[in-house]
Amino acid sequence: HIIAFDELKTDYKNPIDQCASLNPLVLPEYILHLLFNVLFVFAGEWFSLVLNVPLIAYHVHRYINRPVMSGPGLYDPTSIMNADTLNKCQREGWIKLAFYLLAFFYYLYGMIYSLISNN
Question: CA–CA separation, 119 vs 99, rounded Å?
């Protein structure tokens, strides 16, 4: 997402094409994130679940309050070029990237710890 919004800022790609490529990625991201959290519930990983609940709540809020569109997705080509909207989407992308990166290393640590402690 970050690169896509940077391409919009620099007028490298037009908003219709960019939104057409970004919108199909929104629901799979949300579903995959929700699936991981369902697995956390089944595994009893309550701390991991508590870390992810705010992002799930944000995803639900963001999708409920999305612009009126004919298909699934979050990004409307008519409003994405607004400087405030573009900056908000880019900031959201950076924050989610940082969250997913930190979560990845936390889960990797947990996996290695469980592999080592089971021997």
Answer: 31
**What is the C-alpha separation between 79 and 75, in angstroms, rounded?**
8
State the DSSP code for 10.
T
Residue of 112, 113, 107 whose CA lies nearest to 52: 107
The whole-angstrom distance between residue 46's C-alpha and the CA centroid of its chain comes to: 21
Pick the closest to residue 80 from 70, 94, 97, 66 (CA basis). Answer: 66
Count of alpha carbons within 13 Å of 28, Cβ hemisphere only?
5
Q: Are 5 and 86 in contact (CB under 8 A)?
A: yes
Q: What is the pLDDT along the chain (119 residues), one digit of tens a residue?
A: 778 877 777 777 788 888 888 889 999 999 999 999 999 999 999 999 999 999 999 999 999 988 877 788 888 888 888 888 888 989 999 999 999 999 999 999 999 998 998 76
Token look-up 């089971």 returns 118
Whether pTM > 0.70 for this model: the answer is yes
Structure tokens at 80: 């994405």
